[in-house]
Amino acid sequence: MISTGELRKGVVIELDGELWQILDYHHIKMGRGSAQVRIKFKNVKKGSTVEKSFQAGEKWPRAQLDRRPIQFMYRDGDEFHFMEMETYEQFHLNAAELDDAVNYMKDGMTLDRISYEGETLGVELPITVDLVVVATDPGFAGDTATGARKPATTETGLIVSVPLFVTEGDTIRVDTRTGEYQTRL
To answer: Which of 98, 124, 150 is the last residue of a domain?
Structure first.
């Protein structure tokens, strides 16, 4: 069981017979009456988002998700093929099931398969990934005084805002939670 005092972003709970992931939450203390918690949820299976208010101290069952290491093998159109690292079982997921993760996945990369009661819900990416820049405009000397940025397209098709000194062929580190540039390698 998880109570309103133990909330964390990313935690998955069971509510009304469905799985909901906590995206954001705020504790609200009214002048009179008890405190409330406003939570923004994402339905794990359907992808819809909802905001609900609850009384402070309310509890819900925490969903027991199974995490297993997998390897991304290759992409075939909208299907992404994976292999279980322990059993060598192969399976595939489509782009809709993977959501934004498709922008960060490279062949041979290790991820975690998230499943609930035997049903695959999606994959969990590492916090950062290293991607090669395949297209970007050249930066010009003297343009860096304001911390200017430019768009760069990576090998996976993800477009990232990078500093002007990044050029085609450079490898950059990207945060998978925000999609932001972190450093050039």
So the answer is: 124
Distance CA 123, CA 148 (A): 34
Please tell me whether residues 115 and 141 are part of one structural domain. Answer: no
Tell me which residue range forms the domain holding 76: 66-124
User: 39 burial class (0-12, 13-18, 19+ CB within 10 angstroms)?
Assistant: buried
- As separate numbers, helices (DSSP H) first and strands (DSSP E) second, the chain gives 1, 16
Dihedral of CA atoms 151, 100, 184, 160 in degrees, nearest 10, equals 10
19 touches 12 (CB < 8 A) = yes
Cβ neighbors of 87 (< 8 A, separation 6 or more) are none
Q: Taking Cα atoms as reference points, which of 21, 77, 29 lies closest to residue 45?
A: 21
Note the pTM of the prediction, 2 decimals.
Answer: 0.71
Q: What is the pLDDT of residues 136-176, one digit of tens each?
A: 888 765 555 567 888 999 998 899 999 888 889 999 999 98
